[in-house]
Structure formats: structure tokens, C-alpha cells
Amino acid sequence: DSGVTQTPKHLITATGQRVTLRCSPRSGDLSVYWYQQSLDQGLQFLIQYYNGEERAKGNILERFSAQQFPDLHSELNLSSLELGDSALYFCASSAGLAGGLRQSTDTQYFGPGTRLTVL
Amino acid sequence: LAKTTQPISMDSYEGQEVNITCSHNNIATNDYITWYQQFPSQGPRFIIQGYKTKVTNEVASLFIPADRKSSTLSLPRVSLSDTAVYYCLGIGGSQGNLIFGKGTKLSVKP
């Protein structure tokens, strides 16, 4: 158990819909990361938040957005869903450092993931 | 982040020692070598991290030669439950996100 929790575990929805995935980081961790894993693309970084602020952006679609709340939990919002959005979505957290710059030993711990199926 | 190259797959039998080698020719001075393990439909799990020479923990050992252009993850006496995908990453600097390659799919047979 990494200490990172994600809900829901499974989500089935239809094209065009909007869903929200939730992540609670390990106690004390300030950074939250979102990753998408699909069969053909592997693990892809989407976005990082540090202490409530967006810190880095990866291959995140404009239909997707995220935020980190004052209690440090994070939500990933996926809208206008398409069949190709079906994937595993992982959240990871790390301790983070002052200013959000990470060092090599700032280990990321991953949650169990949310499996999204778009029909 | 360093670009890494690993074998796509490896087979082993229970009780054997498994060594997975990763090449990272352009690793930066401040990059650490980090290995993650991932079981199907689960999140990657941190295994071990090192900078130079040898690091050992309760799960694995990591060998990094002096030139740091490669590293070897050693799993002693593997069991069926070690069947998973193993990722090698070079991590350092101010970049937060992890770049996962294809990893090495280890299959342990009885």
C-alpha cells in the first residue's frame, strides 16, 4: 500500500460525458502527479501540482483539467469523453521541495489507479 | 531525463537470480537511476534508486558502474509473484514528471 488513494476504482460512462477522478496523496506529500496508461501509449504524464499550484504539464488534452485543493487532494476532470480516453489513470504523490523543484530523490508513489471505460 | 533502453522481455524460473540491464548513455550528472515495478492493472511501485556503485534493499540490488552509462537491477531468488513489468528511469534536476519507456516484462515460471 503506497498510501495514495484514488476513487473510484472503476468508472464506466458514455461518449460525450464528463467525469471526475479523485486522488488523495500520502500524508505530508505536497506534489501530485497524474498519469494516463493505455495499451498503445504506455504510461504518459499528464500534469503536476505542487501545494495547490500547477507545476508542470505533459500531454494533457484541452478537454482534461485538474486542480489541487487546500487539503492537497487533487481531482482530474475529463470532459467530452471519447472512446480513446478509455485507460487507466494513475495519481502519484511525492514530498516535493520548496518552490516545487524536484530533486532526484523525490520519489513518486503511485496510487492503485482508476480504470475508465468509455462506451 | 535520460533516455533508457531495456530488453522488452525476459523469462526466468522460480528460485533463480534475475538481472535486468538498462542502458542510459546520455545520463546527466545529477540523474539518479530509479527502478519501478508494475503488476497488471496496478500503479507502478518504487523498487530502488541509486547514483553510483551498489545499492541494496530488502527487495533488490542495483549495480551502477563508474561510467554510469548502464545499470543492472538484480532480483535474488525470484518467485512467481515477481512476474511484472520493470521500468528503468533516469531522474534528476527540476523536471517533475517521470518518463516511462516500454519496460521489461519479466515472466517467472514454476
Question: How does this structure look, described?
Answer:
The complex is a heterodimer of chains A (119) and B (110). In chain A, β5 and β6 (53-57) form a beta hairpin. Chain A is an all-beta fold and 119 residues long. Chain A contains no helices and eleven strands. Residues 98-102 of chain A have low confidence and may be disordered. In chain B, strands 1-9-8-3-4 form a five-stranded mixed β-sheet, with no helix packed on it. A four-stranded antiparallel β-sheet of chain B has the order 2-7-6-5, with no helix packed on it. In chain B, β6 (61-64) and β7 form a beta hairpin. Classes of the chains: A mainly beta (119), B mainly beta (110). At the A-B interface, β4, β5, β9 and β10 of A face β4 of B.
Outline of chain A: globular
**Terminal residue distance of chain B:** 37 Å
Oligomer: heterodimer
The proportion of strand residues of chain A reads over 45%
Record the strand order, biggest sheet of chain B.
1-9-8-3-4
SS summary, helix count of chain A: 0
- Overall geometry of chain B: globular
What is the C-alpha radius of gyration of chain A, as a whole number of Å? Answer: 14 Å
Largest interface: A-B, 32 and 25 residues
